[in-house]
Amino acid sequence: xxxxxxxxxxxxxxxxxxxxxxxxxxxxxxxxxxxxxxxxxxxxxxxxxxxxxxxxxxxxxxxxxxxxxxxxxxxxxxxxxxxxxxxxxxxxxxxxxx
Length: 98
Description:
The protein is an alpha+beta fold. Helices cover 15% and strands 42% of the residues. The chain has helices at residues 2-7, 10-18, and strands at 28-34, 39-47, 50-59, 70-75, 81-86, 95-97. The relative contact order is 0.23.
């Protein structure tokens, strides 16, 4: 999870972990598009009692912190999806079920 912690705030990680309580089934595929066009995609999978994250695609623009604000879509193993708006560090994150 150390690589995941470098890309995601503790608040985002906590919300992703809560999805299992909502009935979502691992692994989760995700894509994030930042407000400046930066992209991060990957897969969350079980790793003991925590999550492991494997990044499958990444594009960074010249601006630092480009994924601090943007949109995240996450799809579970059954095809159920959620959407989150990442508003910036310290801001609340909520997933809206689609």
